[in-house]
Amino acid sequence: PSPIPRHGVSLRSPSPPHGVPLPSPPYRLSLRPPSPSHVCPWSPCRVQPEGTVGLSPEEQQRWARRLAQHVIAATRTLTRLFLVHSLPESLKFAFLFYLLTYVGAVCNGLTLLGAGVICAFTFPVLYRHHQAQIDQYMSLVRNHLSHLRARIQAKLSSAKVKPQ
């Protein structure tokens, strides 16, 4: 006698599916790793020839120095912003993070990363195609901002009480 199944579950192994089986030679061919003769030239499985990959020791040192300079500059800038060495810069930095909370409420970080990657490759091409128009509008914006800045500075300097 077979055991009594609990809660309607049978203890016997399930029967094999009654579908159409794949012939074994093509199935085995699809599971084996690619051989060097079947690898495309752009495939990551392709064997790299010796001596063509890598940087010379001088280039490695130059890139390491540049990376160290960038890391040091970024560390100094972040230290200056977080420790409030300059109040206007730190307030701009805090306002940027405040705005980013609203952006983060609307978009996921991966969405922003994907949009950034797309923009990084799209904007240079668009600029090359429409360079004259973009430069014309950017000069108009720069002129408008410089006039606005001059008016604000004039009002701020006239609002100050002059010592007698």
Automatic annotation (TrEMBL):
A Pfam family the protein falls into: Reticulon
Domain Reticulon: 43-164
Source organism (scientific name): Accipiter nisus (Eurasian sparrowhawk)
Topology versus the membrane: Multi-pass membrane protein
Name of the protein described by the UniProt record: Reticulon
Cited InterPro entries: Reticulon, RTN1-4
Keywords on record: Endoplasmic reticulum, Membrane, Transmembrane, Transmembrane helix
Location within or outside the cell: Endoplasmic reticulum membrane
Record field: transmembrane: 95-127
Alphabetical GO biological process terms: brain development; endoplasmic reticulum tubular network formation; neuron differentiation
PANTHER family linked to this entry: RETICULON-2 (PTHR45799:SF3), RETICULON-LIKE PROTEIN (PTHR45799)
Source organism, top-level taxon: Eukaryota
GO cellular component terms, A-Z: endoplasmic reticulum membrane; neuron projection; postsynaptic density
Sequence ranges of Pro residues compositional bias: 14-26
Region described as Disordered: 1-27
